[in-house]
Write a structure and sequence with these properties.
Layout lengths: L1 H10 L6 H14 L10 H11 L17 H15 L4 H30 L2 H12 L2 H6 L6 H19 L3 H15 L8 H14 L7 H22 L9 H10 L1 H14 L5 H16 L3 E3 L2 E3 L6 H9 L2 H19 L3 H18 L14 H16 L5 H22 L31 H10 L4 E5 L3 H7 L3 E4 L13 E5 H4 L16 H5 L12 E3 L3 E5 L6
Parallel strand pairs: 3-4, 3-5
Antiparallel strand pairs: 1-2, 5-7, 6-7
């Protein structure tokens, strides 16, 4: 898995999200700038920023960016960062991702340890095998984005399990630290706070033998202190207030809640910096407003409750999918019998799955990653249970070998294009006909597009794909935006490059009169003419290149 992740990093560009997160990590550690990329809490920034401290990079000034909201300043600061450090961009890409690769390997170790505690060593080994060859994990294990969320969510429930099995002061401390790490991994991880509170209430009502209610209360206070300590430390114990432009934007866009939030920031800053609560607020607002999404030919701004089950069914290997279905049924039976191992795994899966399923943001299976480690553990335990069967033992061994061999085969077949991977259930369909956004393209094939164009003497391309406007110029190719405002005369180019999610139209933004994108239907069909054309080349299954003399606007 280590070889796989590192080798794919060397062959792929970074994703569109990383073009913002990686510079924000550099600013975060070098100048303690908290308002750059406020939609992500500190952990990913710290991990991405650490290697950059040792690189010979230039730090663009932020003072003259103007009094713009943090979202606008993030884009401006990131563009300056990449422009000024263009000669080092390959090194920045590689080293900023290495901490995530290491964390992915640590996640595999944590899966093994947790599974061994719950079941046995063979179940743990099988769980790690499923983990190591699953394309979704291989896709995101090298990306500075979501794998750390899966790690902290699993770590929290492992710490909770250990504390519940034998409450001690040390385990309460570790539980609090794990809770704090989850909170600084992703704002939606605030879900662990009520889980922690309810768990301690349960322990207080039904104290384990040898542990009184007073001791449970002391343990809770220790855990709460450790959680707050991590929160404060992640922001370097600074309570920087919101910048004026963010306050103005908040008051202008959300008059109903802005006064309440702004008045609460001062007392809440005793627990965490204002930008932490601002990030939580923006996450909930984004979820409430929704996000353009696509699923099997349907479009929605609010998503579908069944989106993640369908995406999971399409983007996991068939053997792992079948093992997951079987192991969930087996675990449900074990939970009815009140077996603790199954109860804690199903609780963790159910909590996050329900939140994801009823969220308004359906743009990628990566948002479902925290559920995966628990499914690997269940899958490993289920295969181990088959191997322990006395009847039909040879059949059980054969089934296990087939499952593992099929998983390995799929990982090899998909290499190195793991981000747009889909299984055989999509046979006869293009990826863009099934899902959209980071499920099918994320900008990491930009380097291959640039190499192909330059090999043919082309240094300019009309294009619409995620991350292209930032990444293509770094490779020496001009990105001519096909979604430029009406009236802008675009130069003719030999080629047109379209991302998979632009082909299906889900990521095409709206515009005013004369743009051809005034209505939702026009947005969705803006590139419809290309859907039946044969591309000259397809890069990584995510970017389609067409040779044309002119492009109809």
């Amino acid at each position: 898995m280590s070889i796989n992740l590192v080798s794919v990093m060397a062959r792929k560009s970074i994703t569109i999200d990383e073009t913002l997160i990686i510079p924000s990590g550099y600013y975060y550690l070098n100048s303690r700038t908290f308002f750059v990329e406020p939609d992500h809490p500190p952990l990913s920034k710290i991990l991405a920023g650490l290697p950059q401290v040792f690189l010979p990079l230039e730090t663009p000034e932020l003072d003259d960016l103007g009094s713009e909201p943090s979202a606008d300043q993030t884009i401006a600061a990131s563009n300056r960062f990449w422009t000024m450090n263009r000669q080092h961009f390959a090194s920045v890409f590689f080293w900023a991702r290495m901490p995530m690769v290491i964390l992915t390997l640590l996640l595999g170790g944590l899966i093994f340890i947790f599974a061994r505690h719950l079941f046995n060593a063979r179940a743990a080994m099988l769980a790690v095998v499923l983990f190591s060859f699953e394309p979704t994990i291989l896709a995101h294990g090298r990306v500075v984005k979501d794998i750390h969320v899966a790690f902290t969510y699993l770590l929290f429930f492992f710490a909770l399990y250990l504390y519940g099995s034998r409450p001690t002061l040390r385990r309460a401390l570790w539980l609090g630290l794990a809770c704090g790490l989850a909170l600084i991994a992703k704002y939606s991880m605030v879900v662990v706070v009520p889980v922690l509170l309810l768990s301690f209430c349960f322990f207080a009502l039904r104290p384990p033998s040898g542990t009184g209610k007073r001791k449970i209360l002391v343990h809770f206070l220790i855990a709460a202190f450790a959680t707050l300590l991590i929160l404060k430390a992640a922001f370097f114990f600074h309570n920087h207030p919101l910048i004026a432009a963010d306050i103005e934007t908040l008051e202008r866009n959300d008059q109903g809640h802005s006064a309440l939030l702004l008045s609460a920031l001062k007392p809440l800053s005793a627990f965490a910096p204002p930008y932490f609560f601002y990030g939580v607020y923006r996450t909930f607002v984004h979820n409430e407003l929704g996000h353009p999404a696509f699923l099997l030919g349907s479009y929605s701004d609010r998503g579908w409750w069944y989106y993640f089950p369908v995406a999971f069914a399409l983007k996991t290997t068939i053997p792992f999918l079948l093992v997951t279905i079987a192991s969930l049924g087996w675990a449900a039976y074990g939970a009815i019998r009140r077996e603790l191992s199954f109860l804690i795994l199903l609780a963790a899966i159910s909590i996050y799955a329900l939140i994801a399923m009823f969220a308004g943001i359906n743009i990628g299976i990566r948002h479902f990653l925290p559920v995966f480690p628990f499914l690997f553990i269940l899958g490993g335990a289920f295969l181990d249970r088959l191997l322990r069967a006395r009847r039909n033992h040879r059949l059980a061994v054969a089934l296990t070998v087939v499952v593992i061999a099929a998983c390995i085969t799929e990982a090899l077949r998909a290499y190195p294009n793991y981000i747009p991977y889909m299984n055989q259930l999509t046979a006869g369909r293009q990826t863009w006909q099934c899902l959209s956004d980071s499920n099918v393209e994320w900008g990491d094939d930009t380097g291959a597009v640039a190499e192909y164009l330059k090999a043919r003497g082309e240094t300019r391309v009309r294009a619409s794909f995620l991350g292209g406007s930032v990444l293509l110029p770094l490779y020496g190719v001009e990105y001519v935006d096909l979604l430029s405002p009406p009236g802008v005369l675009l130069p003719e180019t030999r080629y047109v490059a379209l991302g998979a999610s632009f082909l299906n139209g889900s990521t095409v933004p709206g515009w005013g009169a004369g743009s051809g994108r005034e209505t939702k239907e026009q947005q969705h069909n803006f590139f419809a003419d290309y859907r039946n054309r044969t591309p000259e080349a397809v890069f990584g299954g995510s970017i389609y290149l067409y040779e044309v003399s002119t492009v109809a606007r």
